[in-house]
Flavodoxin (Dorea formicigenerans), 249 residues
Amino acid sequence: MVLYFSGTGNSKYIAKQIAEAIRENTVDLNMKIKENDTSPLQTGRDVIIVTPTYAWRIPKIVSEWIDKTKFIDGKRIWFVMNCGSEIGNAAKYNRELSEQKKLQYMGTARILMPENYIAMFDAPKAEEARKIVAKAEPDIEKVIAYIRNGKEFCLPRNKLYDRFMSGPVNPIFYKFFVKANAFQVNDSCIGCGQCVKKCPLNNIHLEQERPVRGEKCTHCMACICYCPTEAIEYGKKSVGKPRYHFEAL
């Protein structure tokens, strides 16, 4: 079974490619998390987790969901992480999570995809994003081949820098940077509710057709990148930056 969490569509695309190639079902973890559904899941022997990279690890809300959910008949687990540049030493924490679940850890693979974290970086324009996706296709095929043949992924890079970023930096990043209060809505908002629908933490609701946020946020960028009128800004950091989501390519 292929389970995916996706902020702006990269992980969903990769997951669908893998699932089609190995003839497995997919599970949308955004909806599972949104519905607070941690009921036991009939995964079958092989579990493939596809996620973006948040602060050099898989998203905290995904690891928490995995920890709480029983995988019935699960034996082996692969992690496929997409990112704009690096995954750090995420493999260490994926291995630990696998051991907690009593699943055979089959490795962590990195796939470079278009950047979406416009709270800090620039997202590519559509033409550049399409080129990045095209370059990623051979890596997706390699991942599929490893899974299809029941092989472990090759070991990812594991330098001091990687260990530092996934280790002490990750919790610091969440504590000081992953907040909801910097998001603002301007007068171009049409009250469509797209941001409410996309938020995996149910952190947004409409009041008088205007989005209102709570304090929970995972910085998936779905609200800001799917807004049809670009009415959402992340303070001044996102002003003038292209919005990215995979379906727009």
Q: What stands out?
A: The radius of gyration is 18 Å. The helical segments are 10-22, 29-34, 60-68, 90-100, 126-148, 160-176, 194-198, 222-226. DSSP finds eight helices and eleven strands in the chain. The CA atoms of residues 203 and 214 lie 5 Å apart.
